[in-house]
UniProtKB/TrEMBL annotation, chain B:
Enzyme class label: transferase
Subcellular localization(s) per the UniProt record: Endoplasmic reticulum membrane
Protein's name in the database: Dolichyl-phosphate-mannose--protein mannosyltransferase
Catalytic activity: a di-trans,poly-cis-dolichyl beta-D-mannosyl phosphate + L-threonyl-[protein] = 3-O-(alpha-D-mannosyl)-L-threonyl-[protein] + a di-trans,poly-cis-dolichyl phosphate + H(+); a di-trans,poly-cis-dolichyl beta-D-mannosyl phosphate + L-seryl-[protein] = 3-O-(alpha-D-mannosyl)-L-seryl-[protein] + a di-trans,poly-cis-dolichyl phosphate + H(+)
Lineage: Eukaryota, Metazoa, Chordata, Craniata, Vertebrata
Species the sequence originates in: Microcebus murinus
Amino acid sequence: MLCATGRLLAATTLPAPPRGRGSAPRCRRRELHFPGHSEQPFCDFLAGRLTRPSVLRARRVILRRGRMPPATGGGLTGSELRARRGRCGPQTARPASRDVAAEAAAPSPKRSAVSSQRLEAAGRWALLALVTLLSFATRFHRLEEPRHICWDETHFGKMGSYYINRTFFFDVHPPLGKMLIGLAGYLSGYDGTFLFQKPGDKYEHHSYMGMRGFCAFLGSWLIPFAYLTVLDLSKSLPAALLTAALLTFDTGCLTLSQYILLDPILMFFIMAAMLSMVKYNSCADRPFSAPWWFWLTLTGISLAGALGVKFVGLFIILQVGLNTISDLWHLLGDLSLSLVTVGKHLTARILCLIVLPLALYMATFAIHFMVLNKSGPGDGFFSSAFQSRLSGNNLHNASVPEHLAYGSVITVKNFRMAIGYLHSHRHLYPEGIGARQQQVTTYLHKDYNNLWIIKKHNTNSDPLDPSFPVEFVRHGDIIRLEHKETSRNLHSHYHEAPLTRKHYQVTGYGINGTGDSNDFWRIEVVNRKFGNRIKVLRSRIRFIHLVTGCVLGSSGKVLPRWGWEQLEVTCTPYLKETLNSIWNVEDHINPKLPNISLDVLQPSFPEILLESHMVMIRGNNGLKPKDNEFTSKPWHWPINYQGLRFSGINDTDFRVYLLGNPVVWWLNLLSIALYLLSGSVLAIAMQRGAQLPAEVEGLSQVLLRGGGQVLLGWMLHYFPFFLMGRILYFHHYFPAMLFSSMLTGILWDTLLRLCAWSVASSRLARSIHVVGVLSLLLGTAYSFYLFHPLAYGMVGPLAQDPQSPMAGLRWLESWDF
Amino acid sequence: MLGFLKRPIVLTTDINVNVVVLTGVGLLSRLWRLTYPRAVVFDEVYYGQYISFYMKRVFFLDDSGPPFGHMLLALGGYLGGFDGNFVWNRIGAEYSSNVPVWSLRLLPALAGAFSVPMAYQIVSELHFSHCAAMGAALLMLIENALITQSRLMLLESVLIFFNLLAVLSFLKFSNCQKHSPFCLSWWFWLALTGVSCSCAVGIKYMGVFTYLLVLSVAAVHAWHLIGDRTLSNVCVFCHLLARAVALLVVPAVLYVLFFYVHLILLYRSGPHDQIMSSAFQASLEGGLSRITQGQPLEVAFGSQVTLKNVFGKPLPCWLHSHQNTYPMIYENGRGSSHQQQVTCYPFKDVNNWWIIKDPGRHQLVVSSPPRPVRHGDVVQLVHGMTTRFLNTHDVAAPLTPHSQEVSCYVDYNISMPAQNLWRLEIVNRESDTDVWKTILSEVRFVHVNTSAILKLSGAHLPDWGFRQLEVVGEKLPRGYHGSTAWNVEEHRYGQSQEQKERELELHSPTQVDFSRNLSFMARFSELQWRMLTLRSDDSEHKYSSTPLEWVTLDTNIAYWLHPRSSAQIHLLGNVVIWASGGLATAVYTLLFLWYLLRRRRQICDLPEDAWQRWVLAGAVCAGGWAVNYLPFFLMEKTLFLYHYLPALSFQILLLPVVLQHVNDHLCRSQLQRNLLSALVVAWCSSACHVSNALRPLTYGDKELSPDELKALRWKNSWDILIRKH
């Protein structure tokens, strides 16, 4: 088995022929053994769950007496246990002795056989190299075209530039992917000056190939990864080749890998995690060896990478998690292992699959916050405390009085993301919408109209008069908020709010600060005791209207044009504690109080991490589709119902259209159905205890175990989208598509082998298999030839036109290229 | 054959007095003073209006669940002779004398009462002791929240009843399976499982969770059955087939049947018509069908039509135009074509009429014989009142700048030619030669010059557009969407050539005779689809709560307050039962994991049969709790405490199961057992005490002084109403 990993190691670091050559024959032999080898755990699994053989019960009796039987323990159990346990020890020794045997055998008359095996090994290497080369060649072919921004490059390219310029921004995805793009741009000499304003803008002299090349580089690795994964799962070269061909010749995968997008990076990490998981599974017979640790660690690192690019990475984490649980379950059931050993296994997995990824994930955030230290377009999304970190923000290095006092001029910010500051202006609510008084709204930008003066409710005297002592505002005080620019009081009454009918209207009322009792608000700090002072930035405060008992909040709904499309402020009679009704004081001006530096208030790293996650999650949830928009539905995806326009619309444009190669995709779809059918037939047959011939047994193990793992991957990367409320796009399906292509490879190879097996003559059998695989390979290659303009770009008339290069290829009306 | 001559006929019956007594007490607790309060209590105001609709046979659409539950409530109204004349508008309103309160509330109360003996049966079918079974029934009996919920005209208690019935009959069935498969009672219980599952789903979609639970337990059993090599293949196949029919086919058929009855009962048009398609509306008596009856089916050149948007969101509306033009310059500084506005208008209006014109002819009337319009034909649309042509051009639409403006063409002589040709595409056609049919056909208008598609953008125009909805030409159509499809609603063949006469004609109503041509399945699928996709605004509610608050009972709902005194009804659980229920679930989960891990190491703490029992009880009770509770964390709608009650009813079943297990397997000495028994007695009596203390809030029959009410406010988060004097 060492040879297998050795080969892979070599594969990832490219040619290392001497080691590979020597070890290949052993691999081959192991492979031949594999049906029997893999049968053991599977049956164990079935037996453990469904039927409980009586042998186990007999063993249990003994075990109850003394849990770890002594090595000298008599009877069948003892010897069996010893024998099994012995496997761990001699295991390491065995390859060595075999090596010797191989060395010894080499000069013997069997030289021809060995050399043919060597030849075969070299062939395998050549195949892998070919697959990798082809993949790189297709991905890098015409990479520089089109020379303008395509689709989401406008976002991710821009975010890469932000990293280079170190300005803070906000995005709904974790930072790793964009950081890598930024790094690639930086290393390739891009200076971050291109604006990435909208799709279609020409790059001109700006260097963009570094970023595209980086994405294409990662995207190219998908295919060798898939090839090796399938090879390891099925131990069959044709299956792996088929998978590689499906992915290489898929126009969708190709298109998605050629631009500055997060998807190639995400898919790279997903496939890396899958591959290293599979590899480490196949090291299971030599736990705690170097390759075992290597693959386990690599799995953890890839998981951190996947999650660090997009939250969709959670699905591969789920898959690895499920695999690990079933793995541990087997180990626990293996009575030859002591509990200490099982504990070691558990600890190793916790370390490599939980602690390590978590640390790496947090490290990416730490770098993210360290790099982005200048104020930028993302400031408003974050809390006041957060903003004080950013140089260039007005809160940076600012100093304000710490405690709120009467007479202070303040701005009040809503706690919920993207709602903004309490605001009023010299415009009245229009006729018919509540009382015709001055509007009160929330506003996202900093403005003089956001300033309010905090006053005592019962006196109109100026608290800033130097003869009065400073009086602090305390939790539970009754106050009045006067709008600085218009001198009207924050006011509420029993009129319905403009948009949220069940809430009360909030207005500005009174002349020069003189209003009525509807202007009185009780200020409360959330989760504090009465009588406490109120801290700037840190205190979470609520304003409770004294007369109606309602709470000041913002519904987050956008007012119509009369309200300048600012957000609605209401007074809600429901006293539930939601973020919409919690505020904090941001700016604070009071000449009578000493200023303190805000640096004291700077949040710690865990707080920033938590806040940025809350903001990201809310941002994701906020991406809701509008009613009258066409939106992509998850059921569209596997049938390749509709693509995405990457570039160009009209017949004069350079058009790139993200669409899967329909031949590949429909074959994948068919394969899933066939797999479910054949898989359930086989499973039921085995459950009924049908005696399968050894060959079929072996093939069905591949189908059920290897195929099952891949199918699980497909399901985990596809079905959760049905539950998501956010807006969805076609490209969300591509990670799942990788898995379904792997399934197709495994399934067709196995089915063809089964077909071949059912034919008596061995020559015919061989030819059935070869012809079948070849025709699938050539079919996909030909379909790629037909559809390649989708990915590499097309100019000229649209497909309806018979003159078009794509004429006759618009097989579905919903494809618009 | 004539055996009865030789031997006497002997009937032996076993009467389990426990069950009888439990039923009796259950009935007593749920039926006692059922008509009190004689006023609308909480959600009765919601269900009541649907009962009235049933009584008046008026069509309605409720997205909260399938119609079976509403029909059951309406059955009560029907038996009580309710005529539907009551205005359900306010909680607390006194019922008028024509409302048969007793019979309306009877069904939920009966369902609640029968849940008590069923709890007993389920626990004993799980092979736990008679004592545990009695415990479960007792807890079910004294749980205040369940009592409150079942004494009112609400659906939760009926849902719980069918949930429990499904589980009970499945257990009975699988116990039959062990000794005599395919016997009569085997079939009976199997069928009853399927029926009660579909009833549960038919009452509320929440019932799906219990259905899935039963299905998965059945699937595991079936898998064992497949592995049973003592059975022949044919026998296994018969077993599987019987299960598939009873648990999959029967529920599906019943579910459709509910809708069938629903649609048969409701044949009159009503206030919810607008949500449905024109074809559906036309199949109802009154309403649209009164207008559309007998109008010509095939749209011809020269037809006068109104065009309704198929998607109809945010409002159902018709393509409309009027004299006013687009403002020359919009508020944001962009310019417009200043031509006549085209909008979508949510009210019937004479300006909604359009005439289909053949571009090749000048006639605006129908030739004889009429020449029908087919898929792919190029047409012009002429606005009836202003005789202007529907037009679109490369000018940005007012609110959706990436789409084209749609206008009625006014020739200002500024080298902006008319582009008024539209190609007709029938979306739901069967062949390319299909004819455009009134109401039934959904059509798209594709602009010939720019291939833009006529679309409702959903935005409201500002004041200059009278807040009507914006209509645009979509340049980048990405597949089919309802907002680009239109259907003809009103239709007549135009007869008058002169503008004046035509205006008169447009003002007169259309008339002819009536046909219902929509099949049941079409109506069913439309109704079902609308129910699942209808998104009501998530309205805030004073008593809404989050799932986390339910377990700890940190919330309550005030159902009703006596108009004068302080008597009030609250949905408030028995604190002891809720707390111990949560504890029992935690204990079960931990114990289960512990046993499972130890069994994996071949250490068996429990004998095999006890283990099997323990697992099955857990699957049914803890599983029932989990499937009825956890999905709420994913839901985005407004949630209330009563959503937790089905989960709670399963948790109550788990309590005695865990207690008995602790007693049987964990207590090692007699002393420990005695201690446990004492503890159980103390716990039981405290539950009874709490139940009794909360009784005034459950039945609402007793006035309490403010001090007493304050004393009952055990948690700060409970909202108990205290009158200020």
